[in-house]
Amino acid sequence: MNSTSSLRAQAIFMSPATMIAVAIVVPPLLYVLFTSIHGSALSLAEFDAVLTSSLFRNTLSNTLFVTGLSSLLSLLLGFIVALHLSRQPARRRRFLMILVLLPFWTSVLVKCFAFMVILGRDGIVNTVLSWAFQTKVQLPLVFNTVGLMVGMTNYLVPIVVLPVLASLLAIEPAVYRAASIMGAKQARMFWTITVPMSLPGVFAGLLSVVVLSLGAFIVPALLGGPQHMMLSNLVNFYNREVLDWPKACAISIVLCGTVIIFAAPLAFWRGRKV
After folding, report:
1. Which of 207, 260, 254, 209 is nearest to 231 (CA)?
2. Predicted structure pTM score
3. Which of 228, 83, 98, 76 is nearest to 156 (CA)?
4. Largest CB tally within 10 Å, which of 14, 46, 98, 254?
5. Which tens digits make up the pLDDT trace of 159-196?
6. φ, ψ dihedrals at 43, nearest 5°
7. What string of DSSP letters covers 77-111?
8. DSSP string, 34-74
């Protein structure tokens, strides 16, 4: 099959899903954009008010910080888990994959409340530490950066594991055998074979976690506390508390633009590496 036929076949198979996605996503986005500019008035006053607001700038800065830190931690932990899974026999790997996928089977909301029970001042972790040290221990593990990162990495790590594992399993064992015959040590094989050849999966996982982190809402709201408000929480604040829908829509448009700014280079970079 030549490239033209391949592209035509891909277009035929993808077109129903694309049309459904466009029908579901585009009309609400157009309505949000319409509201943000006050309809036919075509006013940019809300965008000007948002971009000059210290609340918005602080929230944007916090959103980028949480996104960067949670993406980095998730990528590191996800790569370690995927590397371990790739070196297991097939039967054991199937069992371990069930454990990796377990977080997907539970609601994010339920997991956040579970972490509040586990990490709270009188939670399981502090209770065990109090018993171990025979003194009252109340470490602040929730409603701060620690609790937020625990929740975000629990949510994002499985998303990194799947594409990275696929890339690692695609590496031919003969490549490692050839490198070993040539005298390469384990560390050298890791940096010259494993890391470069896993980059397609790494970029796919990184792209997914960055997009999901930028739009995170439940985890920062429940585990991060007021000082970790993100843009999605700010949209909810203007939409439900202040009832200023044009400003909430303007922030939503800025959030969409931020996602595109970060996701587009990653997607382009991944495309060049695949």
Report:
1. 254
2. 0.84
3. 76
4. 46
5. 999 999 999 999 998 998 898 888 888 889 999 999 99
6. -95, 140
7. HHHHHHHHHHTS-HHHHHHHHHHHHGGGGS-HHHH
8. HHHTTGGG---HHHHHHHT-HHHHHHHHHHHHHHHHHHHHH
